[in-house]
Design goal:
Elements lengths: L3 E5 L3 E8 L11 E8 L1 H11 L4 E8 H13 L4 E6 L4 E8 L4 E5 L8 H11 L6 E5 L10 H12 L2 E5 L2 H10 L2 E4 L3 H8 L6 H13 L3 E7 L5 E5 L2 E5 L12 H14 L4 H17 L8 H8 L7 E2 L6
Parallel strand pairs: 1-4, 1-8, 2-6, 4-5, 8-9, 9-10, 10-11
Antiparallel strand pairs: 2-3, 6-7, 11-12, 12-13, 13-14
Helix pairs in contact: 1-8, 4-5, 8-9, 9-10
């Protein structure tokens, strides 16, 4: 098994509640209060631990809320390395409205990180010992858009593979730097990379295949929500439908997908098997209310279902 680490530049304390009905102005009585450590890379580490692996979590943490985040990680028995910052770690909130089965999510931007703090993070990564690093989540204020390019430069020097899951300018700059092992854009994120809408499967496949063809990433896994996912690699693009499950929460579904796929790849599973495992974990996460993420039994059960046939998707040869 290859060793895995994760990087979370903008972690959060994830708070989940349930309420009968959400109204403006009025005080709303909530129940089922639950707290979890969150943020892309931390969620990936949590899921990998549940699947039976270990992924050391590197993350920024600051203020009184940062202390709480550290304690939550310890409660989850996470292997962790904190990079201390002055700003307060953010708190994200999700509220499940029982009457309508709708979920409301409130996600703040987080702290401003100084140049000395994000440089300290890069210095920390120079000594990292892993085979795969999953850099996942948004960049906080103050961190330059090319930060993940700098992480990729470290990956090249230290001979580990970088998996990137981000959005906006940070994703665009990271992909442009090239040499990534895997990226996991949503449809909206892939459209941002392409610079135009992708209106059908062929267009989505062509955009993903172009990233592989240009040497920017070895694999591109495009998550399409309830429409399934696509996998682009040198040999072409494959499509698999989503697994139909009851939706209890969408929080962390993409992180569950990425964690399971990474875990399978680290165990030397074939990439299509890893892709299927990721789809199973994404569906298992949707089954779990609030910020609970997926459970191994659900992932394994969904993975063992009769597999759908992977459908090749034609692309523009470009």
């Amino acid at each position: 098994m290859k060793t895995i680490a994760t990087l979370t530049m903008n972690p959060a304390i994830d708070v989940a509640y349930e309420a009968d009905r959400v109204f403006h102005t009025r005080k709303i009585r909530a129940r089922q209060e639950h707290y979890d450590p969150g943020g892309g890379g931390i969620n990936v580490s949590r899921v990998i631990a549940r699947l039976g692996g270990t992924a050391r979590a590197y993350y920024l943490s600051g203020g009184a809320t940062g202390v709480t985040l550290d304690r939550l990680l310890d409660i989850h028995q996470m292997v962790r390395s904190r990079i201390l910052i002055a700003g307060d770690t953010r708190i994200s909130t999700s509220v499940f409205e029982r009457e309508t089965a709708k979920e409301y999510r409130f996600v703040p931007r987080g702290p401003t990180v100084s140049p000395s703090e994000w440089q300290a993070c890069l210095d920390h990564l120079e000594d990292i010992k892993c085979d795969i690093l999953v850099a996942s989540g948004s960049l906080p204020e103050g961190v330059p858009d090319d930060f993940y390019c700098r992480v990729q430069a470290i990956a090249s020097r230290q001979n580990f593979q970088l998996i990137l899951d981000s959005s906006g300018p940070a994703l665009r700059a990271g992909v442009a730097s090239g040499g990534l092992y895997l990226i996991k854009p949503s449809l909206g994120e892939l459209e941002q990379l392409a610079g135009h809408p992708l209106e059908d499967r062929a267009a989505i496949a062509s955009a993903a295949a172009a990233i592989v063809r240009q040497g920017q990433a070895r694999y591109v896994a495009v998550t399409l929500g309830r429409d399934g996912a696509m996998l682009a690699q040198d040999s072409g693009v494959l499509y698999l439908p989503a697994i139909a499950v009851e939706t209890n929460s969408a929080v962390g579904a993409g992180d569950g997908f990425l964690a399971a796929m990474t875990f399978a790849l680290a165990g030397d599973q074939a990439v299509l098997a890893a892709f299927r495992y990721g789809i199973a974990a994404g569906a298992a996460t949707i089954l779990t209310p609030g910020t609970g993420l997926c459970h191994r039994d659900d992932v394994e059960r969904l993975y063992r279902l009769k597999p759908q046939v992977a459908e090749p998707v034609p692309t523009d040869p470009g």
